[in-house]
């Protein structure tokens, strides 16, 4: 059984999300642009939650074109977050006459762009954050352009599933809060367990959603919010806890590039711990009898989504049904290995069903039990 954390252990430390550090850099750069004042610490109004954060500023300088550059460094707290310590740059310059808005945001090098539209992956919360913090610093009729740069953004993005959801060439300024809760730090597991125990008192069928995409899609399908558990990467311990709390059925609901790890017996899904997605997918391709060349292409794919795209192209060209065959086998394996995992760790039997979706949030496959449970709870 997964061990509980020792009493008296230091609580996991929360940090701040990437938009906060970008905004802090922009504040420091604007102040220098206005008054040549170098600021070592800036206060950022987080809006959500309603509190201020003091963010250190590493460097401030004027650039040859008259703009100002400031640099902060990401600190996500006790998270297994790949943006930890990455530098965040903001370049602020006075707006050109044609600019209509007081604050224009642009994504520079390392900021991802939306593949379909080409727009910078700077989302609503980040834009709200910049507006709330920069607008009060502008004098009447002053207008600025703010360009956010992540020097390591392109390299870091290759280690994420951003491309699977249509974000390319960098990272997103994403989030709905300024606080980066330590979802992948050990201390957070107790909060997840407490939520599970509470829901187990009123329901014996739960839906495990690995991330925000699963949570959003599950609501759209009509799954009640009080059935859902956000697991982050703590699937293993939470599956065991569910068994110990008497849960009878669990629907595993997640992006195929994440949930596929369970078919390989990987029950902590963070990439820092284990990966093997393409290897698992290639093994199932081979087991289903796909041509050797296709299996080799799947194994060499840069992402699970790229491998899926290749299989779909093969089906379209040859009028085959390999995607359904391979992913149905994967979903069945996920169910079987998860049942066995809970049985081994907690000595109880829990019925498991799986639903996997793709980058477009379209359901890719449902296992037999997944179909039954989904029909039951929707």
Structure description:
The protein is α/β, with parallel strands linked by helices and 378 residues long. The protein folds into two domains: 15-180, 2-Layer Sandwich (CbiD-like), CATH 3.30.2110; 188-377, no CATH class. The protein is 37% helix and 19% strand. It is built from twelve helices and 16 strands. The strands form five sheets. Strands 4-5-6-9-7 form a five-stranded mixed beta sheet. β4 and β5 form a beta hairpin. α8 packs antiparallel against α9 (292-300). The protein is globular and about 65 Å long.
Summarize model confidence as the mean pLDDT.
90
Question: What's the main sheet like?
Answer: 5 strands, mixed
The number of helical runs is 12
Strand content: 15-25%
Ends: how far apart?
32 Å
**Overall geometry:** globular
Compose a concise summary of this entry.
It comes from Almyronema epifaneia S1. InterPro entries: CbiD (IPR002748), CbiD_sf (IPR036074). The chain has 378 residues and is of the alpha/beta class.
Could you give the topology of this structure?
Blueprint: E1 15-16, H1 18-35, E2 41-45, E3 52-56, E4 59-62, E5 68-73, E6 87-94, E7 103-107, E8 113-114, H2 124-134, E9 144-149, H3 153-157, E10 167-168, E11 179-180, H4 188-200, E12 205-209, H5 212-220, E13 228-230, H6 235-244, E14 249-255, H7 256-259, H8 277-287, H9 292-300, H10 304-318, H11 322-346, E15 351-357, E16 363-366, H12 368-377
Helix pairs in contact: 1-2, 4-6, 6-11, 8-9, 8-11, 9-10
